[in-house]
């Protein structure tokens, strides 16, 4: 894409997965419009780099299907997952209005048919929207239960031929252990798909990692709560953790100590 090359971004097309936590304040549930607008403003600035941007949304701020899937309630697991998919559409509606209030042209797409509020997930139509410079907001997961939105994002990235999958989450990247439980956990600047799976580093669904590994699609995991991180990631700046085929994990501290 000419605009991307002119701006210096190394990417032509990106799938950005945004966790549901981005739509509310830390530790809270539901939708906080101040948080949504802040997220939209940063996404708007990132889109100015000229890349084609598709965004997959989570819905954990409203409801996670897995919370009803343990068989402890009268809600069937499949029903619970559909409820979680609908939560992503609610986030999508809020995010679409926030982006369009900034003058951004968008299209809201849902894998769960609901033509009154969102377009159906049609591959060629999504491609056309991206080529016309619209931000495409992908909701409803894959439209089928028992599939995470991480995996939906990986599938979307492969389907539309994205150059990279970016996951904006509430942690700084991939750690050697849960940083909330282990203060000595190591933050990696770069790590392989194999090491993420082998060490069971649950920053992303294993199925999503596996799909990306099979097709050599790089992944960047970074903290959306750090101002400017989405824009930096889209512009190709070093942020968070890069997951690729490399077999030697690189610690953030080692990267900082490297000259140049």
Automatic annotation (TrEMBL):
Please give the name of this protein.
Answer: Uridylate kinase
Q: Which family does it belong to?
A: Belongs to the UMP kinase family.
The record lists the catalysed reaction(s) as: UMP + ATP = UDP + ADP
Annotated Aspartate/glutamate/uridylate kinase domain ranges read 13-223
Q: Where in the cell is it found?
A: Cytoplasm
Q: Which UniProt keywords apply?
A: ATP-binding, Cytoplasm, Kinase, Nucleotide-binding, Pyrimidine biosynthesis, Transferase
PANTHER family, A to Z: URIDYLATE KINASE (PTHR42833), URIDYLATE KINASE PUMPKIN, CHLOROPLASTIC (PTHR42833:SF4)
Q: How is its activity regulated?
A: Inhibited by UTP.
Read off the CDD domains from this record: AAK_UMPK-PyrH-Ec
Biological classification of the source: Bacteria, Pseudomonadati, Planctomycetota, Planctomycetia, Pirellulales
Residues reported in the UniProt entry to bind ATP: 17-20, 60, 64, 169, 175, 178
InterPro entries recorded: AceGlu_kinase-like_sf, Asp/Glu/Uridylate_kinase, Uridylate_kinase, Uridylate_kinase_bac
Which Pfam families does the protein's record reference?
AA_kinase
GO BP field: 'de novo' CTP biosynthetic process; UDP biosynthetic process
Q: In which pathway does it act?
A: Pyrimidine metabolism; CTP biosynthesis via de novo pathway; UDP from UMP (UMPK route): step 1/1
Q: Which domain of life is it from?
A: Bacteria
Q: Does the keyword ATP-binding apply?
A: yes
Question: Where, in this chain's numbering, is UMP bound?
Answer: 59, 142-149
Q: Name one GO molecular function term.
A: UMP kinase activity
Oligomeric state and interaction partners are given as: Homohexamer.
The record describes the protein's role as: Catalyzes the reversible phosphorylation of UMP to UDP.
What GO CC terms are in its UniProt record? cytoplasm
Give its E.C. classification number.
2.7.4.22
Q: What class of enzyme is it?
A: transferase
């Amino acid at each position: 894409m000419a605009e991307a090359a002119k701006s210096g971004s190394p990417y032509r097309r990106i799938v950005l997965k945004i966790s549901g936590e981005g739509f509310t304040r830390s530790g809270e549930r539901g939708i906080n419009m101040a948080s949504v607008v802040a997220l939209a403003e940063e996404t708007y600035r990132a889109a100015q780099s000229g890349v084609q941007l598709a965004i997959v949304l989570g819905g954990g701020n409203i409801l996670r299907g897995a919370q009803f899937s343990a068989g402890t309630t009268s809600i069937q697991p499949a029903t619970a997952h559909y409820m979680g998919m609908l939560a992503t559409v609610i986030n999508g509606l809020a995010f679409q209005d926030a982006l369009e209030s900034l003058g951004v042209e968008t299209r809201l797409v849902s894998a769960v048919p609901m033509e009154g509020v969102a377009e159906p997930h049609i591959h060629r139509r999504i491609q056309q929207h991206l080529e016309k410079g619209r931000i495409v907001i992908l909701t409803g997961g894959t439209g089928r239960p028992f599939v995470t939105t991480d995996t939906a994002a990986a599938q979307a990235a492969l389907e539309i031929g994205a150059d990279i999958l970016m996951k904006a989450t509430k942690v700084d990247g991939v750690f050697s252990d849960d940083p909330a439980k282990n203060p000595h956990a190591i933050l990696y600047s770069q790590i392989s798909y194999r090491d993420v799976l082998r060490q069971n580093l649950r920053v992303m669904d294993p199925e999503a990692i596996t799909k990306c590994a099979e097709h050599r699609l790089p992944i960047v995991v970074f903290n959306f709560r750090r101002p400017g991180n989405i824009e930096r990631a889209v512009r190709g700046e070093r942020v968070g953790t890069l997951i690729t085929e490399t077999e030697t994990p690189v610690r953030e501290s080692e990267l900082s100590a490297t000259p140049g």
